[in-house]
Specification:
mainly beta, elongated, single chain, 117 residues
Length: 117
């Protein structure tokens, strides 16, 4: 019997670009993370020592007209004995997606108008 070690590998890459124009500055940041860690599950009384690979892709966009921050995560569970992918799935986690409006429609953002009846 061998002991399945709790080792986590993390690979990270970040790309940042900034564009300036008459309408303002646009910032794009993309972060790509890959995490590899042990994954143990029990099915019908049998315990399996597998490998979980999480690929996270974060996209952060800021411009005078739009703000967005989203994380896309793709999961792979691999059987190290057969080297086959036994599960694959995706999760999309929107943190923030909204247009920016530089001019308030009514009142001020810091002090809202009292026009609610």
């Amino acid at each position: 019997m061998y002991l399945f070690q709790e080792i986590v590998y993390l690979f990270n890459r970040e790309y940042v670009s900034e564009v300036m124009s008459k309408s303002g500055t646009t910032m794009n940041r993309r972060i790509h993370n890959i995490e590899i860690e042990p994954y143990t599950t029990t099915i019908n009384g049998q315990t399996y020592n597998l490998v979980l690979v999480k690929v996270k892709y974060n996209i952060d966009n800021e411009s005078p007209y739009y703000v967005g921050d989203n994380t896309y995560t793709h999961y792979y569970i691999i059987d190290p004995k057969t080297k086959q992918i036994v599960y694959e799935g995706t999760e999309i986690h929107p943190i923030l997606n909204m247009p920016t409006n530089l001019k308030p429609i009514s009142g001020y953002i810091e002090t809202p108008s009292q026009d609610h009846k």
